[in-house]
Amino acid sequence: MQQRLVEQGALLWPWLEHASRMAKDVDAALKAVITEHGGVDAEAYVAKMSKDKGYLRDVY
């Protein structure tokens, strides 16, 4: 994942400039992916990831 961030840095930078809503929006997008592609309850899945230290929602 880190390598992709570096590779796509020019596309990523404009998003980072407007990051005031990023934590909330990224969290919502992650939950949408979990629901659509994982077919599981996204709220429960993210809660377990957080509990297991696999997900930390950052605040910008």
Keywords:
60 residues; mainly alpha; 70% helix
Description of the molecule:
This protein has 60 residues and is an all-alpha fold. It has four helices and no strands. It has helices at residues 2-7, 9-17, 22-38, 42-51. The chain is globular. The two termini are 20 Å apart. The model has no long low-confidence stretch (mean pLDDT 87).
Annotate the secondary structure layout.
Blueprint (H helix, E strand, L loop, with lengths): L1 H6 L1 H9 L4 H17 L3 H10 L9
Helix pairs in contact: 3-4
State the low-pLDDT regions, or none.
none
Overall pLDDT level: 87
Overall geometric form: globular
The count of strands amounts to 0
Short description:
This protein has 60 residues and is mostly helical. Helix content is 70%, strand content 0%.
